[in-house]
Amino acid sequence: MSRVTARRRMRRITPSGEIIRPDTLAVEEPLEIRIRGESLTVTMRTPGHDIDLVHGFLFAETLIAGAADIHSARYCAGTDDEGRNTYNVLDVGLHAPIVLPDRPFLTTGACGLCGRTALDEIRMRTRYPLPRPEPLLEAELLAGLPDRLRSHQSVFDATGGLHAAGLFTAAGEVLAVREDIGRHNAVDKVVGWALRENRIPGSDLVLVVSGRASFELVQKAVLAGVPVLAAVSAPSSLAVDLAEESGLTLAGFVRGQTLNIYSHPERIRGAAAG
Prior knowledge:
alpha/beta; six-stranded mixed beta sheet; five-stranded mixed beta sheet; 24% helix; flat
């Protein structure tokens, strides 16, 4: 398996002169996802937790309803110049046949609308309607979750170049944290973990992301039945619209002791509704 970090030579320029030394970088490599031997997509990702990533990706694309739809996921092919397995091709076996696209589509680590061509296609109907808004967690506890997420970002500590996503209980217990060069991949990895652990729908969970809250990340939370999404940075206007429409509690700029709640504050104790 490829490492998640790599060393590269760099030249650092400072007021006192230049320093030439190796730097630790986050690894980015392609992962080809195949369904019964047929190529579905190639996504750029940070190696690690690839099985979780594939589960989450196929779930987000509504190609599977749960982990039980997958009977196997194994690395295959994908060799380097010396014949060693690169672990960059993963073949998935499904219990039921699905219709694949006419041709494989390329996705990047930042892709969240992969293979979608119209907004109507994107607003997919979730299998898990969100539970009725009601108090779920304390505002003070929610404000502290990004710091708990940050404490589990070991590869970010080494590289400064990875996004993270984490699933927490309403009591603040961390269940899973995943890092990746792509923020959408990081979310797919934790959702994939939840699928495999039979925690979907995540009606009692909170999803925390290290960056901004885009439409695509809100959609992934809604599809997984997760009622609260907290982001360290800003949401987009369309993310807020979808959250409001779908019944999701969306919080942004969750830092230190403050946070902004953009939709359905009823789930947060200490936040007035309306």
